[in-house]
Amino acid sequence: MTESSPSLSAEQDRSAVLALALLRGAVAAGLGLGSVTVVVLALWISAPASDSSPGSALHAAAGLWLLAHGAELTRAHTLSGVPAPVGIVPLLLAVVPVWLVHRAARDVLVPDEGHPAPSARGAFGMVVGGYLLVGAVAAYYVRGGSLSVQLPSLLFPSAVVVAGSAAAGVWTASGRPIGPPPSWAPVSLHEALARSRFRERAGTVWRAAAAGVAVLLGGGALLVAVALVWHAHPAQRSFVQLSGDWSGRVAVLLLALVLVPNAAVWGAAYGLGPGFALGTASTVTPLAFSGRPAIPGFPLLAAVPAEGPGTVLNWSAGAVPVAAGVTVAWFTVRRAAPPDAGREDAWGPWGTALVAALAAVGCGAGTAVLAAAAGGPLGTRALAEFGPVWWLTGAAALVWTALVGVPGALLLRAWRLRERDGDGEEAAYVAGDPGVAAAGKTAVPVPVPEPSSGDASRESGGGGRRWWRRSGGRDGGGIGGGGAGGGAGEEAAGPVPGDEPAPRRTPAAASLPAGAAPGPVPPAAHSPARGEDEGVAPYDFLPTGPWRERTARPEEAGPSGSA
């Protein structure tokens, strides 16, 4: 029946592939939810005196999983009795769902043996649909518990995060292409994406922006680590006060670990200048720590600097955005003026500046997104604002990287091209002078041997030092009578009758049959005899060719004494 209806079989196979993509999306969501649930249940079981039920632990696990996607939760049970929002996303925990969705969308487009691969749009829609279906079930489950989710946050940013991760997976499976744009896009955009230079510069913008964001995060993490070491005693005291048993301390430690990327973003915002808020009435910047802070007891918050105006140590945090700007400039010049390319292959100054400026824009946008996720409300009154302000942090990252990255890229480009031009001029100078050799980067003159008395007598007699003419010489293969190993005083235009030494037989010549003309002798056979001048003339290194074999024979040599 399948063989008689191939179109129906293909249609069923395509439907099965799409159903498998939907299942992959649901499995990815289940893996993320299950991993969080296992950790929460392990902590609940290990607690010696827990007043909550297993259902409360499962509600907390589902709420944490939704919080990792950017959803805003509401804490019902508080000391004041007023529900308090929880909007800070643990960034390390958010890596898990992003990676799972990305991998699911990427693997769907890898066809199994004997089955067709779905289209990119079909894979994207099915994976996102399956994942969001599990997310909707989890949101319904936590409804009415101690941690409930606010419905608008399920659409933005939670659904946007899932869709973006799935789109990145489809793009990766397709080979990370740049283009073609949609059919409704302008013609100029189609033409621009068709150019290889545009694609190269777009990739450079992306890499430079990502490198700038990475340096900002690394610098922020370094600032937090130094501050924690500086305030080690307060951090240890807050860690001990939060819990009395080992299970509670493990829970505090895990919470601190998943919030380490958040602390790195806070440190980057501090180095950029806008700083971060510790409540609605307090702001921490390198210039000053002002206001009345509302600081909960937590080990990472013990790294906050002391209140009052900033000192030189606080101002030194400005090295972090400077390093990010230098990184943007370096990644731009790596493509603008690569080491193995000539001046004609390098980008122009305007193109280099434009790419560096666009990379600064991308760095500012990425920093703003991370700052928005790293901060958020923790309450309704004093803790309604907690963390960096995303638009101020993004604008500061843009300004810093543009002010440092654009001039830095232009200066690095000019320096590379100038150094290359200097090397080219020196190479041309060395190549153009036959009496100069290159020793490293210094031109060293090579001495040319003076003509001997024999040369002078022959030149006065009309013999001339004409090394371009070929005559018979010793060993059957000398150039101008001198050979490859002959002295400088043996050059002559031709053999002189009665003044020719007897030919010296070499082992190679002795093995030839009688009457055979000797051929060219290898260079190793031209060892200078005792008493010969061992000076080396520049023309001794001329290449040999077929004319050498012909003129090496005495009967084919030119007339003797020809001038």
Helix-strand sequence: HHEEHHEHHHHHHEEEEHHHEHEEHHH
Please summarize the sheet with the most strands: 5 strands, antiparallel
What coarse outline follows from CA principal-axis ratios? flat
Percent range for helical residues? Answer: 40-55%
What percentage of amino acids are in beta strands?
5-15%
Neighbour order of strands in the largest sheet: 7-6-5-4-8
Spatial extent as radius of gyration: 40 Å
The helix/strand class is mainly alpha
What's the N-to-C terminus distance?
Answer: 100 Å
Report the count of strand segments. Answer: 10
Roughly what is the average pLDDT, rounded to an integer?
Answer: 77
Q: What are the segments in which pLDDT stays under 50 over at least 5 consecutive residues? A: 1-8, 433-449, 451-517, 519-543, 545-552, 556-563
Tally of alpha and pi helices: 17
Write a structural description:
This protein is mainly α and 563 residues long. Helices cover 55% and strands 6% of the residues. It has 17 helices and 10 strands. The chain has helices at 6-46, 54-68, 91-108, 120-141, 151-173, 187-194, 196-230, 232-242, 246-258, 260-272, 312-315, 319-336, 349-374, 390-432, 453-460, 507-510, 546-551, and strands at 73-75, 84-86, 147-149, 276-278, 282-284, 288-291, 308-309, 386-387, 436-439, 442-445. Strands 7-6-5-4-8 form a 5-stranded antiparallel beta sheet. A 3-stranded antiparallel beta sheet has the order 2-1-3.
